[in-house]
UniProtKB/TrEMBL annotation:
Species this chain originates from: Methylophaga aminisulfidivorans
Designated name of the protein: EAL domain-containing protein
Domain PAC residues, every copy: 248-300
Superkingdom to which the source organism belongs: Bacteria
Pfam families: EAL, GGDEF, PAS, PAS_9
Residue stretches making up the GGDEF domain: 332-465
SMART domains in alphabetical order: EAL (SM00052), GGDEF (SM00267), PAS (SM00091)
Ranges for domain EAL: 474-728
GO molecular-function term, one example from the UniProt record: catalytic activity
PROSITE patterns reported in the protein's UniProt record: EAL, GGDEF, PAC, PAS
Cofactor(s) needed by this chain: Mg(2+)
């Protein structure tokens, strides 16, 4: 029987009253209050004094509630000593109850969280208030996070601790925090929108890129970010793909808040609900304007002459081929004008390259005004220009253009305080009358132009079948080339290649010279092409390779074990699939390592590469020989072959170097080439450095090496050695 004088609501065995054991059962709170209240009302009903058996049954029911509750319960003392624990509590600690009773709960809490738990105990027992604390238990191999709710029992000097495992929730919170951190730290702009294109969230990079604050766009349709530069059809196709595949990516023009246009790379992904309906879309984009500008600059350089802005040889060849094809289909005529500026070399030599460049730019303007809008004017190099006139019914228009060109080119060229007087020599060839292919037509126009020069310049000449004078010298030189090795008329000269950072000679470029007993000095630009045409490039190239290899070996033994010499190789030498064998065998025979030789090739070789070329380059590289890409920027300048082939050095053509200190585009192009090469792991050599200002600018841009008249012209071996000997520490010993 219950004692009526006993405080109501008190259970035997020192258990807590109903008011102190309010248990709640959501994610963070304990629940058993309804059951406790029911039990309490049964024990406190004065009108129904239960017999002892009923009282015991109630206590048993309460014990069951304590033992089998879904929450781990601990009855603890103020110092956290465990008085009793239920089954879930023992399971939580993976042990039996007897092992826990008498131990302190604090012992099972990670040291970093113990102080927080002790403070919670103090609030519970000294302030007589319920307290909640989140701690990490240390008894598990994997950290276990629990939420502990403490409730005091002041009558017994004990308290009830309910522990709920919140590890999964904690992991979720960590994951969410990480996701949030990543979201906010992304350099790409992110837009989250609902299925109706209404923006519901943006990240900080969105504001940085567009200029719009989050509160300015959230709740707005993302469609307002569209640019008028894109046609409506563009967006129709975009959403057609997006709705069909759930994603879309590509380049899009856009506008910032301040009105600045930019190009972005946009990627849109759709998020689907459980019914497979679109619930959200996530757009990620970045500003690629600088990249596009760099690509446009390289593309411009690949197709247009940097000095005059006219199409270069590559674009000229493409348009000539197209023009010939169109002319053949339409049964019309095409005229090719080959134009050379008379006495231009004298202007360059007397006034300097700066004035020569000014003349070329003015000449380009004048020539453009002389031709039709449908014609193509190209600068092929130096003072050489070409005009393509297609869709001609007769040649009357050609004669009119020639007359205007000769007249305007004969007018004085004001060059600051100086005045230059030049004229033009023009050769004309007609398709299909004079040639049936582009190459034949170019040769015919060139031959006609040389004839015009021989006839006194400042005139024009149409190609005729009898015009063989130009070929006569080629035949003569071709015959003489067959004996240059036997007559010992070839010699090698070496131009130092300097490490721009140290100022020391690091390498040398080997260049061939031909001195004929009767014809005098014949430049390589003239005889190399002849040697390529008649196959003599192979024995000449072999002589050059062996001569340079022996010289390299001697200088390595005399000066520096890492010294290297680069050799220019003709594209024709890569047409034989066994050419590399003799090179490698010779190096092995004389005991010279492959890394002593750098093979310089042109862009055209890579663009027109055959399987033999690919195999040869691969074999050379695997044998230790290094590859240098010569005159970069004057050919196709395609980035594809830089990825396909292993290139060790990229040589910036001197036409860009000479303008880099006074022309923004040349400077930007040099910087872009250097940066691109370094990104690809390629070292850079700048050719044609003539001033210290050029060297300083290139060094600041990160260029590795340089060569040019600033350091030395190409020298015979004896003079090159004298150049080395006169400096105490001239050689760079870097491998």
């Amino acid at each position: 029987m219950l004692n009526k004088n006993k405080p109501r609501g008190k259970l035997k065995h020192g258990l807590l009253t109903n008011t102190d054991t309010k248990l709640m059962s959501d994610k963070h709170t304990l629940v058993a209050e309804p059951l406790i209240q029911k039990l309490d009302s049964e024990l406190q009903n004065n009108d129904l004094i239960a017999p002892h058996s009923i009282q015991q049954e109630a206590i048993h029911r309460y014990s069951n509630l304590f033992e089998f509750a879904p929450v781990a319960y601990f009855v603890i003392k103020p110092d956290s000593e465990i008085v009793t624990v239920n089954n879930p509590g023992a399971s939580l600690f993976a042990t039996d109850k007897a092992a826990l009773i008498g131990r302190k709960l604090t012992e099972y809490i990670c040291p970093s969280n113990q102080q927080a738990f002790i403070e919670a105990l103090d609030l519970t027992f000294h302030n007589n208030q319920s307290t909640r604390v989140e701690v990490k238990l240390s008894h598990h191999s994997t950290p276990l996070w629990v939420n502990i709710e403490l409730k005091p029992d002041t009558n017994e000097g004990q308290g009830l601790a309910g522990l709920i495992d919140v590890s999964s929730l904690k992991e979720h919170e960590v994951e969410m925090a990480l996701i949030s951190a990543v979201y906010n730290s992304l350099t790409e702009a992110v837009i989250v929108e609902d299925k109706n294109n209404i923006i519901i969230n943006v990240n900080p990079s969105f504001t940085k890129l567009t200029g719009y604050q989050a509160d300015e766009v959230i709740g707005q349709s993302s469609l307002f970010l569209r640019s008028n530069e894109e046609a409506p059809l563009f967006y129709e196709k975009m959403f057609e793909i997006l709705n069909k595949t759930g994603k879309w990516e590509g380049e899009v023009s856009s506008t910032q808040k301040n009105g600045t246009s930019y190009i972005k790379w946009l990627s849109i992904s759709s998020i689907y609900d459980q019914n497979n309906d679109i619930s959200h879309r996530v757009s990620i984009f970045s500003d690629i304007s600088e990249k596009k500008n760099a690509e446009a600059l390289i593309l411009k350089q690949a197709n247009f002459d940097l000095l005059t802005g006219l199409p270069n040889r590559r674009l000229f060849n493409d348009r000539l081929s197209q023009g010939i094809n169109k002319t053949a289909r339409n049964h019309t005529k095409l005229a090719l004008l080959s134009l050379d500026i008379d006495k231009f070399k004298e202007v360059n030599d007397s006034l300097g390259h700066c004035y020569g460049d000014k003349l070329l730019m003015e000449a380009a303007i004048r020539l453009t005004e002389c031709i039709r809008d449908s014609d193509t004017l190209a600068r092929l190099g130096g003072d050489e220009f070409s005009v393509i006139m297609s869709s001609l019914a007769d040649i009357s228009n050609v004669r009119q253009v020639i007359s205007r060109v000769l007249e305007t080119m004969a007018e004085p060229f004001p060059l600051n305080e100086s005045i230059a007087y030049v004229t033009a020599s023009i050769g004309i060839a007609i398709f299909p009358d004079d040639a049936t292919t582009a190459e034949e037509l170019i040769n015919a126009a060139d031959n006609a132009m040389y004839t015009a020069k021989r006839e006194g310049r400042n005139c024009s000449h149409f190609f005729t079948p009898e015009m063989q004078s130009e070929n006569s010298r080629k035949i003569l030189l071709g015959n003489e080339l067959r004996h240059v090795i036997a007559k010992e008329q070839l010699m090698m000269v070496y131009q130092p290649i300097v490490n721009l950072a140290s100022g020391k000679v690091h390498k040398a470029e080997a260049l061939v010279r031909w001195h004929h007993d009767e014809l005098g000095d014949i430049p390589p630009i003239e005889f190399i092409h002849i040697a390529e045409d008649n196959g003599l490039i192979f024995p000449i190239g072999e002589w050059i390779f062996q001569h340079v290899a022996k010289q390299t070996l001697a200088w390595r033994e005399q000066y520096c074990k890492n010294f290297k010499i680069s050799i220019n190789k003709s594209p024709a030498q890569f047409q034989k699939n066994n050419q590399h064998c003799s090179w490698l065998n010779y190096l092995e025979n004389i005991g010279l390592a492959g890394d002593a030789i750098i093979v310089e090739i042109t862009e055209n070789l890579l663009m027109d590469s055959s399987k033999f070329t690919d195999q040869l380059l691969s074999t050379l590289n695997s044998s230790g020989l290094q590859i240098a890409l010569d005159d970069f920027g004057t050919g196709y300048s395609s980035l594809a072959y830089l990825k396909k082939f292993h290139v060790d050095y990229l040589k910036i053509d001197q036409s860009f170097v000479k303008d880099c200190t006074n022309d923004y585009e040349s400077e930007a192009l040099c910087q872009a080439i250097i940066a691109m090469a370094h990104k690809l792991g390629i070292m850079v050599v700048a050719e044609g450095i003539e001033t210290q200002a050029q060297a300083d600018l290139l060094l600041a841009a990160g260029c590795d090496y340089g060569q040019g008249f600033l350091y030395s012209k190409a020298l015979p071996a004896a003079q090159f050695q004298h150049l080395i000997d006169k400096d105490d520490t001239p050689l760079d010993n870097i491998a």
